[in-house]
Specification:
By secondary structure, this protein is mainly alpha-helical. The protein contains 6 helices and no strands. It has one domain.
Length: 151
């Protein structure tokens, strides 16, 4: 009985280790996506990129960032569920742009407010967020299967 308990404890410890590794990798993807999005918004035009690439590229990265955030918070939840929650959240944030209050509009005029909440409602943004979420989910799924990192 002691051997069986010890073996179960080892399996549990190994599972915790895999989850910690997965959480670290997902959080790293989250931070890298933020860095890429900020770089695109800051240097995109000076690098000669078109408005569409900078605008919607940033929105695609924002959608991917939302996916990585939820995936980091729930490492043992399947990617499809994480993607669904990320998409609902992204749509809710976009719909939130339709609500106007003086303090909220003042916050939206700041750089932080523009990056977090945006300024103007756009269905195109929802499509870009969905593309980013699908891309991040596919990357997560592909890498998880390849590396054998537990979901």
């Amino acid at each position: 009985m002691l051997v069986a308990d010890a073996m179960a404890g080892c399996d549990e410890l190994e599972s915790l280790k895999r989850h910690a590794t997965r959480r670290f990798l997902l959080f790293s993807a989250f931070l890298l996506t933020i860095a890429c999005g900020l770089a695109l918004r800051r240097f995109g035009f000076t690098a000669g990129l078109s408005f569409g690439i900078v605008k919607y590229g940033g929105s695609i990265l924002w959608g991917a960032m939302v996916y990585w955030l939820f995936a980091t918070a729930s490492v043992n939840v399947k990617g499809q569920r994480v993607a669904f929650v990320a998409l609902i959240t992204a749509i809710a944030v976009e719909l939130f742009r339709l609500w106007h209050a003086p303090a909220l509009d003042a916050f939206r005029l700041t750089t932080t407010g523009a990056l977090l909440l945006g300024r103007v409602f756009s269905l195109w943004n929802i499509l870009a967020y969905a593309a980013g979420i699908v891309a991040a989910s596919a990357l997560d799924c592909g890498l998880s299967k390849r590396k054998g990192v537990l979901r």
